[in-house]
Amino acid sequence: MRIKLFFVSFLAIFITSNSGIFAHDLDHSKPMMLKDKNYTEYWEQFFYLSDGSLVTSQFLIANFPWPVGKDHGIMLGTLVTPEGELHVIKNGRDLGKWGYNENALDLFIHTHRLKAFKDDYSVHLENTMGVVDLQLKSDQPAVDHKSFSSKNGFIEASFYAPSLTGSGNWQLGPEAGFDPAGPVHNIDYASGFGTHVVMTDKVDNLIKYWSRIIGVGREGIKPFLSSITRPNSDVDTILKLFDGNQELDNFEDVDITYDNITSEKDASYPQTINISATSEKGSLKGSFKYTKKLAHFNLTEHLNFFEKSFAKSNPSVTNFRYLVDYNLVYKTEEGEKTLTGKALSEYTDIMPAKKAPAKKRRRNRR
């Protein structure tokens, strides 16, 4: 059972495929359940909570190789407390112990559930590590990245909810060291987003870097940024401004640069992201500066020795999650505004698997 759970949680991020490279329109309400040998699809949610904690969840369905098998579901989540303690919440199940609604987004995997009704969403995570309950709302329409194809597959990436806000609570359980459970932490405000992705090739053949940023807090104009750098160095960037639940502006011509690059083991991340963009209404220029570390997350670091031996042939995916300060100047015909505040940021660095050194052939002595 332990071996099987490893395959589910690790290959969920790095699964490969020999499927075709045809693009598909995403239906955000249910999984596509493709027959491709290694089809992978997931809904991923990120939230910064008003108490300073971070909650992420990934509801994933895929056709895995042996010993896991086809039509498998996994929920891989993390909870970072205000003190910076990282807790991993994960479970994998065969079809029947996970399922979905054909007519609306209502996806459950074991005791975890992602559900939507019109503009209302709920996220429930629950196992012995902890419990998270969030009730959320999003009025924005979905935002899509461009389709991208590699030699052996494709990726479709979309924000089914570019901005999610709400409230809820979380509680740590016995696996986190409590007997039977820790105190309930009530959250009066949560800010985040929801992403929907389908991919059918190794992730390092589809994405090199992915930066996602969204302003947090109740008041003011907030930025939304998602920028994917492909293996061929093409850049696909979405940049918007939200004013409450309304889209204030959408920028088509965006220049983005990464400065103050910091290396950590086999990965790296920027400490400053600079943007310069124009739209039909005006221009936006400024920077995002990393100020507070929330988590550096690489699944490999949470595997035991036996599991790591299987992971050597997979790409390395490191997620750098930070609270950032933004300082942006927004110019239109009506005048100039300086936008400042806090934002939730994740920068994902993807590295191909290291090639094993060639074994030297022993020569027989004569």
Question: Can you walk me through this structure?
Answer:
There is one protein chain. The protein is mainly beta. The chain has two helices and 22 strands. It has helices spanning 2-14, 305-311; strands at residues 40-49, 54-62, 72-80, 86-94, 98-100, 106-109, 112-117, 120-127, 130-137, 143-144, 148-149, 154-172, 185-199, 209-215, 221-229, 235-243, 246-251, 253-264, 267-278, 282-297, 316-332, 335-351. The strands form two sheets. Strands 1, 2, 3, 4, 5, 6, 7, 8, 9, 10, 11, 12 and 13 form a 13-stranded antiparallel sheet that branches. It has a nine-stranded antiparallel sheet with strand order 17-16-15-14-22-21-20-19-18, with no helix packed on it. The longest helix has 13 residues, at 2-14. Mean pLDDT is 88; it is low at 15-22.
Task: Note the main attributes of this structure.
single chain; mainly beta; 13-stranded antiparallel β-sheet; nine-stranded antiparallel β-sheet; 2 helices
Short structural description:
With 366 residues, the chain is mainly beta. The chain contains 2 helices and 22 strands. 5% of the residues lie in helices and 57% in strands.
What kind of assembly state do the chains in view correspond to? single chain
| Helix and strand pattern | HEEEEEEEEEEEEEEEEEEEEHEE
Please give the share of residues in helix: under 10%
Structural class: mainly beta
**General shape:** globular
Q: What portion of the residues fall into strands of 2 or more residues?
A: over 45%
Largest sheet: 13 strands, antiparallel
